[in-house]
Amino acid sequence: MADVFMNTYHRLPVTFVKGAGAWLSDSNGKHYLDFTAGIAVNCLGHGHPALVKAISEQAAKINHVGNYYQSDVSLAFAEKLVAACAPAGMEKVFLANSGAEANEGACKIARKYSLKKHGPGRHRIVTLRGSFHGRTITTLAATGQEKFHRDFGPFTEGFLFVPPGDIDALDRALDPSSVAGFLVEAVQGESGIIPQDAAYIKAAARFCADRDILLMFDEIQCGVGRTGTFLACEAYGVRPDVVTLAKGLSGGVPVGAVLGGEKAADVFESGDHGSTFGGNPLAAAAGLVVLDTVQTPQFLGEIREKGEKIQGILRSWDHPKIKEIRGRGLMIGVDITAEAWPVLEACLAQGLLILSAGARTLRFLPPYTITNGEIDQGLGILRGVLNKG
Ligand SMILES: *Cc1c(COP(=O)(O)O)cnc(C)c1O
After folding, report:
1. Which of 97, 138, 185, 220 to mutate to test the pocket of ligand 1 (most atoms within 8 A of CB)?
2. 374 within ligand 1 shell (Cβ under 6 A)
3. What are 2-36's pLDDT values in tens digits?
4. Same domain? 224 vs 190
5. Does an H or E element contain 364, and which?
6. pTM strictly above 0.90
């Protein structure tokens, strides 16, 4: 492996050069079935014709304009994105480049909303143990996992963690004299594909509404159709104040978004926030294709059906090494009795890319465009690997 990169990633020994649909090819010409979609990013697969066309045409027209100005395509993207999130009550959007940056924006909105309306001292943001919200100093502070808090302090102050599913603990933590926002993943991704309990989210929404605390969903991994509804929070029937998106939103071009409902849409004033690349024309052109493709009821229905198919096949094996299968749509976690990493390595050798989420959980985030035949093929490889090891 090239040693020009800093040591941040524990990379598998493969170098990809090309992709088509749910397939990737390495520098030796070997093909791999991709059940990872670049960690929920390439939601339309690799080389999707409409996406390639939109990106190429946009690159030839205009790549970037500074945020002193507006571009036609960024405006069209923002309008379509807000419309897609309107059923969840979203009214306006700020466009950024990444998930962490989107969550930073959400935290700023919560703090300013609270300051303006309730005065100082009410700046805390409550998040869940096991959550993952990003890698910047502030979003690490928001991330409820100790292993991320080594070596990089001091962190941004004002984050408080609660155990997922514990309504009484949440009731106590959401103290209206000190808390501005509650930030939660509808389905926790990095910590093992853990959907939140419906009663818990309903209770959280009630506490937040009663106490004027902003309810903020981090949908960076689970949003944009991944779970079979455009936003994962739609399945809970609650109305968030803020939603953050990134990963799949532009199908592989860097993008992030903070959306705000009635309380949050107009919190930022001119000069309060910004991002040089945020939502530039290239990202917007790609995002328009993703929104046009993913939003139809039929497409979302297919995501749910494919997810059910995967879970159904996994359950039908009744495999002694599989302990639990969880997930929604094409966001699936499988707890196994063995270490996940050797399974990833063995699958790679057999031409299947999968992810882990924690030491003993396999994670599948395939592109939405994966076919039923490819699902059968990929799971066949996994079954062989589990049988052997
Ligand atoms: C990936 C992820 C992030 C961070 O996104 P980046 O684009 O890597 O900054 C934040 N929250 C969740 C839920 C994620 O899955």
Report:
1. 220
2. no
3. 689 999 999 999 999 999 999 999 999 999 999 99
4. yes
5. strand 361-364
6. yes
